[in-house]
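User: I'm preparing a small set of examples for a lab meeting where we compare how different chains pack in three dimensions. I only have the primary sequence for this one, and I'd like the structure in token form so I can line it up with the others. Please keep the answer compact; I'll paste it straight into my notes.
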Amino acid sequence: MTDTVAGAGPPGPDVSGTVAGAGPPGPDVSGTVEAGDRQVDPLRERRFVTFAAARTISVFGNAMGPLALTFAVLDLPDGSAPALSLVLAAISVPRIALMLLGGVIGDRLPRHLVLVAAELMCGTAYAAMTVLVLTGRAGVASLAVCAAVAGTASALLLPSLNGLTAELVAPGARQRGNAVLRLGTNTATVAGFAAGGTLIAWLGPGWALALDTATFAVAAGLLARLRLDRARRTTGRNLPAQLRDGWREFVSRRWLWQIVLAAAVVNAAVGVTFGLAGPLVARTHLGGAGAWSAVLAGYAVGMFAGVLVAMRVRTTRPLRVAVLAVSMLGLPALLLGSGAALPVVVLAAVLAGVAFDVFGVLWETTVQSEVPVEAMSRVSAYEWLGAVGLGPPVMIAAGFVVPEIGVRPALLCLAGVIFVAALVPLVSSSVRHYERQPDGRVH
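Assistant: Understood. Below is the structure token output for the 443-residue chain.
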């Protein structure tokens, strides 16, 4: 359960974001802010506002980039579906392969500087794509090389995000801080898709790639302005030892790995729903692309509403609430598979969007409270790998299985998988009985 749904238009239910620990509660370490009961509005903290602005700008560009790259590849003389698959794989393969290394780097070095390096690396990759496309020199191989650099940058960036948030925001303000970040990135994603589509239609994919390049440069400049106090970092150990230490932090918290395992199944099933089966049903039974756009728009509206709901949730059982919420992601598949009318499916998508961001905010806040800040990036790397690892092979298999058994029966099966996998963690006492006060203290 992270933050993107495979192949589904607006980012959707990849549900895991960041996870929290079990066994004995980990230390409540805030990094560069006092770990007391301070209830500081994160929007009053200049460093957090700078970080949030950088993330929003970067995500705006990142929403345009893959869209522009897709059409740039398809516009090539040798552009085709297999060529596009090769270029997109060039992004995902290094991102997955190097994720653990990115986690180690994020725990060893100042995280804001790691993000600066990642933004500049990604900006360089997209700048090269821009030049290749605008000068007519682009080819599948050259764009794939650039895409691989962007994927490497993503592996460097993703594990450090949650740890930097923990360093910047006091424990009692993290739930609101995570909600504010999601509100900004949700807005940026929708705006980025709209701006990218408009630029591609008017001027071509090269100019959309150029704007994307500029956003990475601006984000890097903002992140470089952050001045953080010295936080504890891992030092003096080799790479395998640091990975083992991160693994111990990950597996020692039972509810952490239990929910990540559930997330792997949920993400794979939701990815097939939004990326393959849902569009097929929309094309044959609901009226085509316009109908599916309405479903995705409903999901986006739900994500905005979910952030506002998550800001106001006050519960001593955040994991129980989060797990119950994420089971709602099965509603769109259930209604699509049962032949419901389009307005009902759109409403289900709205509820799923709300549930996704409620889950995400509670989940990220819990992780930041439970995992020591000096191990946060490595734990996040293991979490990302676990939560999204099933996605690619399941999507490939679904391309053969879904047509064989029928789209609507497949959607009903997917709904059942999502509901069951999402709720299975409640069997664990470490999930059911986890208790934490809204002020950030663990009991």
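A couple of notes for your slides: DSSP finds 17 helices and no strands in the chain. Confidence is low (pLDDT under 50) at residues 1-38, 439-443.

User: Perfect, thanks.
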